[in-house]
Amino acid sequence: MNREDRLEAVTEGHDAARQRRIESARRALAASGAKECADCGELIPEARRKAAPFARRCAACQSEREREFYCR
């Protein structure tokens, strides 16, 4: 196995490990999904949780956060 082959094998191994970590994180987010908004503490509507299982804020708080970030 030459240097390029070894480098390619290592790179593929790193890529596969990274992909496994990403998938694990996605499964954890989907399984745990926040039910309460991280900002206001109100319940996040089920429709929003289904549409965006990764959401940590209700739509109103997320919109406010984005408005503050993008409209500086």
Short description:
Residues 37-67 form the Zinc finger DksA/TraR C4-type domain. By secondary structure, the chain is mainly α.
Ordered list of secondary-structure elements with their pairings:
Elements: H1 3-32, H2 46-51, H3 59-70
Shape: elongated
Order of helices and strands: HHH
Main β-sheet description: none
Tell me the total number of β-strands: 0
Total discrete domains: 2
Notable features of this structure?
72 residues, mainly alpha, 2 domains, elongated, 3 helices, 67% helix
Can you characterise this structure?
The chain folds into 2 domains: 1-32; 34-72, no CATH class. Helix content is 67%, strand content 0%. It has helices spanning 3-32, 46-51, 59-70.
